[in-house]
Amino acid sequence: MKLILASGSPRRVQILRDAGLSFDVVSCDVHETPLGGESPQDCVRRLAQQKARLAAARATGPAIVVGADTVVVADGKMLGKPRSAEEARDMLQLLSGRTHTVYTGLTLIRLPDRASRTDMEATQVTFVPLSADEISAYVASGEPFDKAGAYGIQGRGGRYISRIEGCYFNVVGLPLARLCRHLTDLGWKFSHDSAQNDHPMKEAASDTPSSNMKTCGACGKSFFCGASQQECWCSEIKLTQAAREKLRSRFQDCLCPECLERAARGSAAL
Fold this sequence. Notes:
2 domains, single chain, alpha+beta, 9 strands, Maf protein
């Protein structure tokens, strides 16, 4: 039996890798806008189900498919990924000096019998008061732009978090302990020997080459590149041809989404 992560999120990939789990990656894009009157809890459960079902439809052989979706909620507002620097600043101002809630919906589907589990985790996160200069500097770093709520607790954003109540990994994007309980319930065998699950360690799905785990040529961190090698320089951020050629001449490797964001915005030197 193999494990399939229905997400190309580099943070979810890293959580599973660090936990020693064998898995494939199948990136599934869904429309993440909440439905009218939908609660945050219902929204993340629905989106997790959609992602898991899309990946399950593409899977072959015995497997457990995992879908997840995360949203930040402050003052009753659901905060997704910021679409602009201004939106990122607005989100951080809302979070500054206050406690908010991070919800992650989780769906597991076992194949071929399609037994499933859907669940949700909530974590309370408290920010220290942020000055206007701190917000501007953090936005300029590029880190907020691919993260719900415009911050990453595992990165530079962790400097502004004074307290959490609940699962840390939930804030990163995948509630690990809750996930593992459901995996056990569905028959996954945890072992230091990955062969016990009849599935060697893979870093990408069967239709996604393992070379899609890249090392950023700017910052040096590992990340999941969801595009082919020919497209990866423009898959995350739309760049002009001249900008792409300038980056190619400077870096031998791909760039992670955060560094691509910084390059596209010209907000900081790489």
